[in-house]
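In this section we walk through a basic example: taking a raw amino acid sequence and producing a predicted 3D structure, encoded as C-alpha cells. The instruction is simple. Fold the sequence below.
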Amino acid sequence: MTSIEIACDRTDSVDGWTCRVRVDDATEHVVRVTPGELARLAPGAATPHDLVRRSFEFLLVREPKESILRSFDLPVIGRYFPDYEREIRNR
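The resulting C-alpha cell sequence is shown next.
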C-alpha cells in the first residue's frame, strides 16, 4: 500500500494553495492549486487536500513515484494524461 502524506498551505486568496506531498517517505513533491482549479475539479471542497490525494492516486496508477514531477501546477497532469480532469471529477 502506498503512503501519501499531504500538507497544504494557503498562499493568499488569489493564488490558492501550495501542497507538499510525500510518497512512501521516498519522494517529495510541491503542487500548486488555484481556487479556480479547486472549484472546477472538486466542487464544494474548501481545501485541495482530497483533490491532491486523488490526483496522486491517479498518477501512481500510471507511473512510478520517481517519475512524477517534483514541482508542478495541478493542471499540468492533464497535459500528460488527457483523461485526468474527466476521471478526477468522477472519483
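Looking at the output, two observations stand out. The chain is about 35% helix and 30% strand. The beta strands are 4-12, 16-23, 27-33, 71-73. In the next section we compare this with other chains.
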